[in-house]
Design a protein that fits this description.
mainly alpha; Hydantoin permease; 382 residues; binds 4-fluoro-L-phenylalanine
Length: 382
């Protein structure tokens, strides 16, 4: 039964929404590179340490506090001390700024779902992405030029976010998470299995996992492991706090945390296997060594992957759209979680309805994100 208040209809909605919030762009385009460039197999020692001593305990803490306060983060701070309420607003404001750029990248990806069906980037994906699609310039005059296709792609993302979020919690985020999160995992598993069948996959994987034990004494790889866990589990951003504040009274928070950590870390390791199998294949086809192909972020998704699809033959017309669609699913379930703490903070503060709050936030956010639809957008985003 849908609930009029902000409350999950079942524990499974809560759990899948949390997994959806954690699994995002960071798992697909950030983790594989972090693993590779920080000691490969040896990275698992700091990584597992970070999950055990930071990820899981911090999530339990954040869940516990949110579950007990059953309110927005600023309201919780206010209930402790009125004069510190303003501190509680820093997080929702910061998250809103993250949301505005995160959804812009998602907009690019949405366009690539369609483009990849006919490899619309042509023979030179780098040139297409930078010059034809983004029309990227570092000159300040670029700020006055809106690139219509990017504006439309970004606004489509805001529309989808609004469409899901303005409904009651269970009718919107709850139902969508139950449908999309399993779908995301199923498609990802399919893509990874396909990648493993490619010739050269082993080359990529041996590069990825080849352990460099000498790095274990390097402070930076420990920092990289803790940084990855903070980013990918979205720790300390009052997302887990907010989602747990909607939990039903009998929710088993600790088990939920363990499932979320397992699903999130499982997903990113799985993604790394897929990414490096594909890079191994590319290396075999192009004669370029894997280390010269490896990159992260937009370079991986919008340049290297299209280059791979160009040499992959006809099957790329299916795998390509599936890949970009997977990134889109991972991103959408994360932007739902990024909007939520902001939305409930405003609902609590001003007594607005969920519908009104989400509508206003999506209009304001959509307008702000138009900065990333200008020719200078990717420069500013960078
Ligand atoms: N954890 C998600 C990801 O890894 O993409 C979403 C996310 C939330 C990323 C908040 C970054 C962030 F600051």
């Amino acid at each position: 039964m849908a609930n009029e208040k902000n409350e999950w209809g079942s524990n499974i909605s809560f759990l899948l929404a949390m997994i959806g919030s954690a699994v995002g762009l960071g798992n697909i385009w950030r983790f594989p590179y972090v693993l590779y460039s920080n000691g490969g197999g040896a990275f698992y020692i700091p990584y597992i340490t970070a999950v055990l001593i930071l990820g899981i305990p911090f999530l339990i803490l954040e869940y516990g506090v949110g579950y007990n306060f059953k309110s927005s983060f600023p309201k919780a701070i206010r209930s402790i001390s009125k004069k510190w309420e303003y501190l509680g607003w820093f997080l929702p404001v910061a998250i809103f700024m993250i949301l505005v750029y995160y959804i812009s990248i998602l907009g690019w990806d949405g366009f690539y779902v369609i483009l990849s069906a006919f490899k619309g980037w042509g023979a030179d994906p780098n040139n297409y992405f930078t010059n034809t699609f983004l029309q990227s310039t570092e000159s300040v005059s670029g700020i006055a030029t809106i690139v219509p296709i990017i504006a439309i792609s970004i606004l489509a993302g805001w529309f989808i976010l609004w469409f899901i979020s303005h409904r009651n919690l269970e009718d919107g985020i709850g139902r969508v998470s139950k449908a999309l999160v399993p779908l995301l995992f199923i498609i990802m598993i399919g893509i990874v299995i396909f990648s493993l069948t490619l010739s050269g996959a082993g080359i990529g994987l041996s590069q990825l996992f080849n352990p460099d034990w000498s790095l274990l004494g390097d402070f930076n790889i420990w920092m990289a492991a803790f940084g990855q866990i903070i980013f990918s589990l979205s720790l300390g951003m009052c997302i887990a706090f907010t989602y747990a504040s909607y939990a039903q009274d009998d929710s088993d928070l600790v088990s939920n945390v363990l499932y979320v950590a397992l699903a999130n870390c499982g997903f990113e390791n799985f993604a790394a296997i897929g990414v490096f199998s594909i890079l191994g294949y590319m290396s075999l086809q192009s004669g370029v060594a894997v280390p010269d192909l490896v990159t992260q972020g937009t370079g991986l998704v919008f340049i290297v992957y299209p280059e791979v699809f160009n040499v992959l033959g006809g099957i790329a017309n299916i795998i390509g759209p599936l890949f970009f669609f997977t990134v889109y699913l991972a991103g959408i379930t994360s932007v739902l979680a990024l909007l939520e703490p902001v939305s409930v903070s405003i609902q609590n503060k001003f007594g607005w309805t969920r519908n009104k709050t989400v509508t206003v936030l999506c209009i304001v956010g959509g307008a702000c994100s138009m900065i990333y639809a200008t020719a200078m957008g990717s420069y500013i985003l960078g």
